[in-house]
Amino acid sequence: GYRARSAYKLKQLDETADLFADGDTVVDLGAAPGGWLQVAAEKVGPQGKVVGVDLQRIDDLEPHQVTTMRGDMTEEQTRDRLRRELGVAERSSAANQNAPRSGDVDESRRLSSANQKSKISGDADEGEGVVDLVISDMAPNMTGEYELDHARSVHLARIAFETAQQYLKPGSDFVAKVFQGRDLADLREEMSESFQYVRTVTPEASRDSSSEVYLVGKGYTTAPITEGD
Ligand code: SAM
């Protein structure tokens, strides 16, 4: 069995959007407790590689192709560790300690405005071309305040998108969970400039619970694309 029911969502996403291939290198963001890691390991097979990142510790998984790390993807040092795990050389060592993210008076507003900007940290250079698929199931801790939960989820999806832009090989795919709301259309629009096409998919297994949907970018390209909806 799988560690999390969410494993079935990834299977459904794969059936809908044909995500995995044998031997793929996959990055899984927000990977705890490991349901998606289990599915990804099956799909890529023994020649593949799956790297999972989460705030929470992930209990060891049997398949040798799975590596996990504990860290916060909103923090530079976690992204640096991921970079090292993927075997990509650092391009500059400019000190970059951004302001802490907690304690803001109006986080929802701040995130919403941050969500309008293109880059979270300015270090997400494009085109390292070492990863076949980036999947993100990252979700914020729910406060019950709809706008805030939405803004946070878009922020996490955007960080995942930047990771995708940094590491995806041309032609490869990206999936990110996001809670529906006002900033979703903008994110989808930005993604459509980097992928052949973008779909919004709601797996059967998501329908009962929540406002979550998955943005699926197919066919990564570093050249800007002009595309209608
Ligand atoms: N896909 C997972 C599975 O199948 O087992 C379930 C993921 S769960 C819905 C969402 C995860 O996102 C949580 O484990 C949470 O810790 C993680 N998460 C939220 N914010 C994060 C962040 N900033 N960095 C890394 N992980 C984060």
UniProtKB/TrEMBL annotation:
<comment type="function">
    <text>Specifically methylates the uridine in position 2552 of 23S rRNA at the 2'-O position of the ribose in the fully assembled 50S ribosomal subunit.</text>
</comment>
<keyword id="KW-0808">Transferase</keyword>
<feature type="active site" description="Proton acceptor">
    <location>
        <position position="177"/>
    </location>
</feature>
<feature type="binding site">
    <location>
        <position position="34"/>
    </location>
    <ligand>
        <name>S-adenosyl-L-methionine</name>
    </ligand>
</feature>
<feature type="binding site">
    <location>
        <position position="54"/>
    </location>
    <ligand>
        <name>S-adenosyl-L-methionine</name>
    </ligand>
</feature>
<feature type="region of interest" description="Disordered">
    <location>
        <begin position="88"/>
        <end position="126"/>
    </location>
</feature>
<feature type="binding site">
    <location>
        <position position="72"/>
    </location>
    <ligand>
        <name>S-adenosyl-L-methionine</name>
    </ligand>
</feature>
<dbReference type="GO" id="GO:0008650">
    <property type="term" value="F:rRNA (uridine-2'-O-)-methyltransferase activity"/>
</dbReference>
<feature type="binding site">
    <location>
        <position position="36"/>
    </location>
    <ligand>
        <name>S-adenosyl-L-methionine</name>
    </ligand>
</feature>
<protein>
    <recommendedName>
        <fullName>Ribosomal RNA large subunit methyltransferase E</fullName>
        <ecNumber>2.1.1.166</ecNumber>
    </recommendedName>
</protein>
<comment type="similarity">
    <text>Belongs to the class I-like SAM-binding methyltransferase superfamily. RNA methyltransferase RlmE family.</text>
</comment>
<keyword id="KW-0489">Methyltransferase</keyword>
<keyword id="KW-0963">Cytoplasm</keyword>
<dbReference type="GO" id="GO:0005737">
    <property type="term" value="C:cytoplasm"/>
</dbReference>
<keyword id="KW-0949">S-adenosyl-L-methionine</keyword>
<feature type="binding site">
    <location>
        <position position="137"/>
    </location>
    <ligand>
        <name>S-adenosyl-L-methionine</name>
    </ligand>
</feature>
<keyword id="KW-0698">rRNA processing</keyword>
